[in-house]
């Protein structure tokens, strides 16, 4: 089984605004339940605000609780699914990278910490005050989306930008601004993550990525250490492990084939690598995951 990658145009209730979609969360789930019944990924950026309900949101094998005031952010390629205990409500919108970046040339989606790096948590819990304030902005987009008035797209994209700014302020409320990663380091880290996503099957050592970025391996490690308190090798290993988990759980390939897909020399080496990084053998992880589910 291949993990389905959902596209914006697959979702119902589209009102012919290219590369953008918004809906109440309950309506979204009801209309698109066939698409959402299994773990899946997207080719777009997604933001969800919950005002009611409880349950679990699993993102790339990490489980997060759903409750009123929670906001979730997903980048293209992340695998996720929902499991609710009580009926959820709120708003969900998603859009392509081009939809946002073509309107704001002076900064990109990666300017926002929740989209800046896969290392940053994909969620935020709002205070009651912030929840009420942001709920009004989501409602404003929802109404505008359905009315088709003059300059509709411009108003929507400006309101999204305001939402992202308010969410960034809440997201970084307890962060010392002076300790935030410099724009120079942020660009290197963003490019590094893109390179790792593209080449991790074949290239498993930092030197390749440093060469691609035209910096020394030592400097690359300094940037990653400063930004994330990790090493470049750790980032590469984490990406390999994430893909390993996706293939182990969501594909029908046997484990030897998965090791081959990830370009390990043999299954024994892959199994040792996986256990060193997760504490489980590949088979043990598969059994544990399905036992919990």
Automatic annotation (TrEMBL):
Domain of life: Bacteria
Annotated PROSITE patterns: HTH_ARAC_FAMILY_2
SUPFAM superfamilies, alphabetized: Homeodomain-like, Regulatory protein AraC
Protein name: Transcriptional regulator
Listed GO MF terms: DNA-binding transcription factor activity; sequence-specific DNA binding
One Pfam family it belongs to: AraC_binding
Keywords, alphabetical: DNA-binding, Transcription, Transcription regulation
Domain HTH araC/xylS-type span(s) in chain numbering: 190-288
Tagged with keyword DNA-binding: yes
Record bears the keyword Transcription regulation: yes
